[in-house]
Structures are given as structure tokens and as C-alpha cells.
Amino acid sequence: MRLMMGNEACVEGAIAAGMRFFAGYPITPSTEVAEKASERLPEVGGKFIQMEDEIAGMAACIGGSIAGQKSMTATSGPGFSLKMENIGYAAMAEIPCVIINVMRSGPSTGLPTSPSQADVMQARWGTHGDHPTIALAPSSVREAYDVTIRAFNLAEKYRMPVMVLMDEIIGHLREGVDLPEKPEVEILDRKNPDCDPADFRAYEVPEGDIVPLMPGFGDGYRYNITGLIHDDTGFPTNSNIVAGKLCERLMKKIEDNADDIAQYEITDAENCDVLVLTYGGTARTVTAARKAAPDSGFRMGMFRCVTIWPFPEEALRACVRDNNIKHVIVAELNYGQIALEAERILKNDAKVWHIGKIDGDILYPNEILNKISEVIKHG
Amino acid sequence: MHMELRLSGSGGQGLILAGVIMAEAALIDGKNAVQSQSYGPEARGGASRAEVIISDQEIDFIKVQSADMLLCLTQTAYDRYGKEPAAVLIVDDSIELKYPEPVKVVRVPILETALKQIGRPMVANIVALGVVNATLKLVSRESLAQAVLGRVPKGTEELNSRALDCGYELVG
Predict the structure, then answer these.
(1) Taking the complete model, does pTM exceed 0.90, yes or no?
(2) CATH number for the domain formed by residue range(s) A265-378
(3) B27–A176: do the CB atoms touch at under 8 Å?
(4) ipTM of the predicted structure?
């Protein structure tokens, strides 16, 4: 058992998943990710680069992955904004990589040392155009390790950028963890082509595969990479037919596999008076409230998302229907971002309420309990 | 056992490190511990506060809700954090108390001890840890000493061990 910070656990998870390249630009409250990566990567034969800014950090991260190394960058709100253009590029060019975003209070440079969960919609829609998004949010230091491994696995499996939405609460939290010597899950790697390089079509999806095969630059397979709409060879085209097919394939590879990506935890939902939907660091507050709820005379269920995007909507709907839940409170450190999602998903099933904060402070268990009392009284 | 602690002082005094050491000592003792902090954008100065929760149970909520102990090393930190009630208040004797005092107040020369007995003001955080543990007996003395040695820079082990002992002696 050793005391470890959430940000450090991300790096340990990344290295266990095979990360051998990190490029970034330090920013509070994510700095310890870069710091730890700079210390740990040379020990395992990897490379760390501090770039001139966040944009370059994202670009180098994409480059490292194209060259065949599992790559990661880390940032917080202002840097996350800067990375958006290149995140879209990675989505379009199907480059696996991992972005750790330790959410702090915004907008703009906001409160640099204070927690927030207000980047969840930015993670989904921050880069322009219709594109798939995978985002995961851990609620403990140990889970930061597990989720980062999973982020790399999903990035490799679906060939796309995957975001780990840390928040300052978990990023800067130190708690005791026992990390396994070897990862407890299978580590997934992108599939490389083995055909004659002359026959290689960079963006053709082989029968039975979800995504195209990906060689490393320098492996002998020459191909074009672009942010433009491209055909199977990787070269740009203006064809509406090709554009429609490509964009749909990008969306479908995630939509069709949402169940594989969805991860969530349901606790005490049977016969509960109110279900609280939450994620990330706020789940710690909600858990404390859930355990105290019987003393306040009611029973509270918890639905905790680990996967934020694609949102585990089937699971949430089923949980609410199966348990005949009439009130769902979304607890999150923002003005109601996932609450919007919950309203959409549960519009025929339950009334959705919201409790949040945008002042840089966190939610406290008694605030959750008071909200539940209010909902029961007036709901 | 469930103890919630706040360690406050000026940024740069090493209160977060003190919190980390206390949490590590608790882990050595086989207890659960979490450590978190609140601080401003300054690297030095300002008021800095570390929080530690030590418990036999799983720790869900990570922040202190009702402090069992508040440590203040500077007047600024006391002025800012002293208002919130704590069961035990441990302060440097340079601090003027102005808020309603809790049942137990330990007012000892932590900063002066670091400066005069050790000759290094920077070990005040370790002196403070000795005072805190001598007062509250949160962790075993051996575990705390081991945790201190695990975290301080190489070459300062002897200095810091003495600082810890001086802290214990201040409480007697």
C-alpha cells in the first residue's frame, strides 16, 4: 500500500498500458502528470517532451502515435481548448492517443487550483464537426490507474483519441493504493498490416475488423494522412458518397460498440426514493450521502458513470425503468451539462433535477441530502 | 477511529508535505488515509492548507467536514482558517488568538524551535508533526519517524529526525 496522487496514478496506468511517448505543456492542476511522466518514461525506454504550448503538445502526441508508440498528453481547461483542433484531426485521421484533462474551474483561466466538472460537453463537442468521442471519468486514485489503462485500450481498439476526464478532486487527491505488478486486464494493441506494401490501402477496413490496420511510420508502408475527407488510400476527395460513408463509419464504430465502451456502477437502486446520477470526484460526495441517507429517513440509489461518452444511456434508462424510479438528481460540478443528457434520455420515464456548483467549491454530502428532501417534498 | 485534520500555514512552509507524511504514517499503521489541499496560485506566501483524514473505515468524502484538529503556523493562516471550529487547536506561540477557543489549545514555539534548536526554519513542519502526534496520538511514533525519513531530502534525515523529537518534547 502506498500513498499516491490521482495524477501520478494516471501515469502509472499509462505506462502499464504501454505508453512510451508523452508530449505536453504543464498546467495546473494537471502538472503532476507531466512531471511524473518525465520521471517514469526514461526508466522504461520511453520519451518525454515538453513542447512550446498545448497545441504542439497535442500535435506531437499524434505524431508519436503515427510513428507507432502509444502516446499521451495531459492538460486542463485552457489547454484542453487549445488542443481541440488537433483532437478533431486525430478523430478524422483515426490516430489512437490519450488526453488527460484534469478539470479546473472556468471559463477561460478561471480558478486554476479549484475543481470543476464543466468540460464534459467540451469533451463531447469541443472540436468541430460530427465525430465520435470516448471520455472516461475516474472516482478514486486506483480508478485513475485502471481508467487510464482502459483509455489506451479503447484508443487502440477504435483508433481514435480517448479522453480521461479527471477533476482536480481526484487529480490532486492522495490515497493509499495497491497497484498490481502487471495490469489485471488484457493490453490491446493496434493491428498492423502484413500485406505487400504495394497492396496496402490505409483506410480500408478489413472484413471482420472495426477499424483499418495501422502501420507505424517507418515500417515500410507509405500512406497519406489528412484532416480532409479521404478515400481508402488516405488521399483527399470531394465525393459526397465517400464523405458520407467515411463520416458514418467514424460515428458507427463507436455507436455500434457503445455497450463495449460503457462502464458504470449502480448501487442501492432497488426501492430507492431518489436516484442520484454522478461521476468523477463528485461520486465521493454522493457515496457519503448515500450511506447517510437512511438516517435521514430515505433510501437513495446511485448511478455512477465511469464512461461519460458515449453516454451509457441504455443502462440509465433500464435502471430507472426496472426500479420504477420517478426522480433522478444529477450531481456534478457545473451548471447542468449531464443533466441535459439525462433529461433527453429519461424524458418519458422520470423527472430530472440538478445539483451543481460553479464557484470552485465541491459538493458536500449534506447538500445532496437536502436536495433529496426538497425533491421528495415538492416532487 | 476517524480523525479529520487541517494543517495550515504559509505557502512554502511544507504543510502539504506534512500532510503527506501524516497520511503515509497512517498507511504504515494499516489505517486508511486521504490527503488533499487547498492553495492559491502563489508558489510562496499566501495561506496554504493541507487536509488529512485518517480512518479505520473506507473514506468516501475526501474533505474535512468537522475538524478534530487545526494546526496554524502563521497569523495569516489562523486569521483565515481559525474561524471554523476544531476540537483541538495547535498554534505557534507567535499567533494571537482572536476567535472563540476550543476546549483544547496547544500553543507552543514551533517556529522558534525549528530556528533555534535545529537552526533551520524550514523544518518547522516536521517539528509541528511531532507536536500534533504527541497531542493526538494519531499514529505510532515509529511509523511517523519512518514516514518522515521516507519523504525528506537525502542528507537531511538526521536534521529532520531531531526536528520530530523536538516537536514531541514541546508537548512533553
Answers:
(1) yes
(2) 3.40.50.920
(3) yes
(4) 0.94
